[in-house]
Write a structure and sequence with these properties.
heterodimer, A: alpha+beta, Translation Initiation Factor IF3, four-stranded mixed beta sheet, B: alpha/beta, FAD/NAD(P)-binding domain, five-stranded parallel beta sheet, four-stranded parallel beta sheet, 21 strands, 31% helix, globular, binds flavin-adenine dinucleotide
Chain lengths: 76, 377
């Protein structure tokens, strides 16, 4: 079963959440899901764009009480 | 009140002098005491490294004796902090001494961390220390043409340095008659060429006009020195003839070792500047985790706020104002033109077209800094 890693980047501002995702991806396996929690609106746009560029999968984004939950699957 | 300041760089020095002036009476009567611990008896003007790297300053111009910059009445020791015993209100130093305090200020700065990326420390030139800036200048002098890659990691101190060094290299090579033999290629980790949106909007057309290539969403993964190739996490590769890096930074090791903050960044209240969860510990300059630029001017404006607040706490038992996130950065846009960015938590910067006048103001500030460090400007 692939694991799900939560990257808690709340309170961190652009480009912090993206940098935290990149660091977390390094220690994950292909197929793993990661959920980035971010309070930064800019990062909620940047992260899916980066994920597409690199060739991972952007699974979902939703906002809950001012926190963006961005779910990503490591694809390579 | 016993005030202990750990770090004698830009933030610590400006704060100590500011406090010594405000608390002149209390220092004489014994109502207050200011002690500073630092790791060096010298004070470096770090922005000068940018000029050292292109042969426009010499190393001796970067330094003053730290003791000579401090107001009388400040106790100064070159004795780096090793253990922060915050529950006991004391700090243990390298010499084994214990310094107790009522109010502690941590201002230990930050450092580049090229070791975090395979091959970067060995193969890239940098200019964030005296030795590396000198080495970079010697490499530049020998360089006769080819692709110069300027690769940026985040976070790093001096938000403008990557743009400035790129503009300055452009003019440096042009002056050497190598303008058409050198191609400058700039890389940045996010999807624009600077993390401040308006600065990116200003700089991109300037790069276009000067023929400087750039690549965004480029997070440095590794350097293959043998084949002179820089690789990114995104899967891109760039062949370089000369690699200049602004590596991602960390706070000081002592901060991490003491568990004060991940990667050496201390969780800090954005307005009050106290360490999260500690009322009598304040944090200043590069080592905070506040999401604004790690710049000397940030340290300076934070020190102004803290100076007022700590003095007011001595005199009336309460701080008087909040830090508003103010930062002011010059941006050198070549060898003789500059602009600036001024911003705070509420208002983003809006850089104007560069002028000679702003460049000359920056050159003057390079000297005026020593007045500023004394807390006079
Ligand atoms: C190339 C370059 C160009 C720059 N250009 C600009 C610019 O144009 N404008 C601008 O605003 N900023 C610029 N900066 C950034 C600026 O220099 C820093 O942001 C600023 O110095 C931060 O101040 P600080 O007090 O936090 O840390 P520092 O000034 O780095 O001081 C840290 C102090 O802590 C001491 N210390 C370290 N460890 C310990 C310990 N364990 N115990 C006690 N003391 C310790 C050190 O000896 C030092 O005195 C530039 C920096 C560089 C490298």
């Amino acid at each position: 079963m692939p694991g799900k890693t939560v990257v808690d980047a709340r309170g961190s501002f652009c480009p912090g959440p993206l940098m935290e995702l990149i660091a977390a991806l390094k220690s994950c396996q292909v197929g793993d899901e990661l959920e980035v929690l971010s309070t930064d609106r800019g990062s909620a746009n940047d992260i899916p764009e980066w994920v597409r560029k690199v060739g991972h999968e952007h699974l979902a984004t939703h906002v809950e009480a001012g926190v963006w939950h961005i779910t990503v699957r490591k694809a390579k | 009140m016993k005030i202990l300041i750990v770090g004698g760089g830009m933030g610590g020095t400006i704060l100590a002098n500011n406090l010594a002036r405000r608390l002149n009476g209390e220092l004489k009567s014994g109502g207050a005491r200011i002690t500073m611990l630092s790791a060096s008896d010298k004070h470096m003007y770090q922005p000068g490294l940018l000029y050292l790297a292109v042969g426009r300053m010499t190393p001796d111009e970067l330094y003053r004796d730290q003791a000579g910059l401090l107001e009388p009445g400040i106790e100064f020791h070159v004795d780096p902090a090793e253990e922060f015993q915050l529950d006991h209100n004391r700090v243990k130093t390298k010499s084994g001494k214990l310094y107790d305090y009522d109010t502690l200020v941590i201002a230990t700065g930050s450092r580049m961390y090229p070791e975090g990326i395979p091959g970067l420390a060995e193969h890239a030139e940098t200019f964030y220390t005296e030795a590396s800036a000198l080495k970079m200048f010697k490499r530049l002098q020998e360089f006769q043409g080819g692709r110069v890659v300027i690769a940026v990691g985040v976070p790093h101190k001096c938000p403008m340095a990557p743009l400035e060094i790129t503009f300055m290299l452009h003019d440096y090579f042009k002056d050497r008659g190598l303008g058409d033999k050198v191609q400058l290629h700039y890389t940045y980790p996010i999807n624009r060429i600077h993390s401040l949106e308006n600065v990116a909007k200003w700089a991109a057309p300037e790069f276009d006009r000067l023929g400087i290539a750039y690549e965004t969403f480029f997070n440095i993964k590794e350097v293959d020195g043998k084949n002179q190739i820089l690789r990114s996490e995104e899967g891109a590769e760039i062949k370089y003839d000369l690699l200049i890096a602004i590596p991602a930074h960390k706070g000081m090791e002592v901060i991490e070792k003491n568990g004060l903050g991940q990667n050496g960044w201390i969780p800090t209240d954005r307005q009050k500047l106290n360490m999260e969860g500690r009322k009598n510990v304040f944090v200043l300059g590069d080592t905070t985790n506040i999401p604004i630029s790690k710049a000397g001017s940030t340290a300076h404006f934070e020190a102004d706020t803290l100076g007022e607040n700590i003095a007011a706490m001595v005199k009336m038992g309460t701080p008087v104002r909040d830090y508003d996130g103010k930062v002011f950065c010059f941006i050198e846009a070549g060898k003789d033109r500059a602009t600036y960015a001024m911003f705070n938590y509420q208002n983003p910067p809006d850089p104007k077209a560069p002028t000679k006048a702003v460049h000359w103001f920056k050159m003057a500030y390079n000297k005026l800094y020593w007045v500023s460090a004394r807390g006079l400007l």
